[in-house]
Amino acid sequence: MRIPSERVSGDRSRLEGARYRQKPPGKQWLERKEKSGKGVADTEKPNQNRLRRSNRLPRKPISSRVRRRFGGPDGVQQADAIFRKAAIRLIPVMGLMYVISYLDRTNIGFAALTMNRDLGFSPRVFGFGSGIFFLGYFLFEVPSNLMLEKVGARAWMCRIMVTWGLLAMACAFIAGPWSFYILRFLLGVAEAGLYPGMILYMTYWFPQATRGRFIALFLAAVPMASVVGGPLSGWLLDFNGHGLRGWQWMLLLEGLPSVVLGVALLWLLPDRPAAAKWLTADEKAVVMERLAGEPPGELHGLWQMLQDKRIWILIIPDFSIVIGLYGLGLWMPQIISAMGFSHKETGLLVMVPYSVAVAAMLAAGASSDRSGERVFHVAGSALTAAAGLLGTAFLHGTVPVMLSLCVASAGIYAALAVFWTLPTSILRGMAAAGGLALLNSFANLGGYFGPDLMGWARQETGDFTLGLSGLAGMEALAAVSVTLIGRAFFRRPA
Fold first, then answer.
1. CATH for 90-489, among 3.40.50.300, 1.20.1250.20, 3.30.420.10, 1.10.3730.10?
2. Greatest alpha-carbon span in the chain
3. In terms of pTM, does the model score above 0.85?
């Protein structure tokens, strides 16, 4: 019996252009073939072979042997083991990148303990200079993330880390306000795209159901940077010699690792699963199959993303979280030092709130993945941060203030970790590259306004109460806005 021509040969140019597999025959046609005594393979196999020999049909995306191995409940567990294997390989590298990044952008807070006196900087000059980093970040983040999607994560992340490392080291030679402003701005330009690029990179590797915990693991690098960098920075501040002050040695030595790691990324960071030498062919196929089975996402094109109001509205809670993140983070060493502690003691005490923040991030990410709930995890964490900031502002004594700093840090970082599961659930492809960068670039303007607000308030009032109260109000705004957005656009299916 002859197969209808459109099933096999048909529109040959369409087969060549679209490069997709011939659709399987319908159920009724298969029944007729079985009744006639001829198997489907008897009629279709020669044509299939002929088409494969001419390379007009691609190979199957995943073999039947792989399907048998990973298809049942046991197979799901084995597939999850593959994602854990990928996480063990990738998350430490990505986390180390962000540890160094965050250290290089925030160690200026420790430098201020002696740099401001050496260079004659007022609180307002320091607040503006430390925050102008985020203006450069804002202007160049979207182009940077689009370049990552185009040229690949490995090469572009190498470029980002090497250039920012060199500029971070150059900050050791700041001589006055204008050189401070210019170098901090250029540092933001160089680092633009790192964070949204890493979030985009995770969408290449991990399905949505596991992404919350892996984003939390990655973002745990932010407070870990202060856990590691606090004592180191406090120690280096007292290291004066060879013609350089302690803050200059600190900026030089803490900028060098980013250059070294940036070069190493060419070997450590595969662009996509297909390029990972530590995955077998079957494991690569499983990763690609699971990711291909993800919900397709609602936004794929860049222009489509720009027209979607959800992306723009999500800027409100993200901006509100980030203004507290950097407003507190860049001034925390001075808040602690003002209670009468030395540089080394300040470095050790800064570790405490950030250690609590690491645990809070990981717990929030795991809880959110387990329950499938995102919005109220963000809102509850932001309200916790607001309470901690108010405690820091109005309580007195070392223990109450330190406990309040711990609560504030835990809330801010837990909210940030779970928040990023919301935009990644609706963005795919070029829309993800542009959308994540757009969202993060506007939100990171909070990194400019937060430190500047704290500097202005400190200069006008002589203490931190007004600035910390303003940050608490922004965290409350984050909680309210993400709740309203969640009810309107991210309702969980019944």
1. 1.20.1250.20
2. 94
3. no
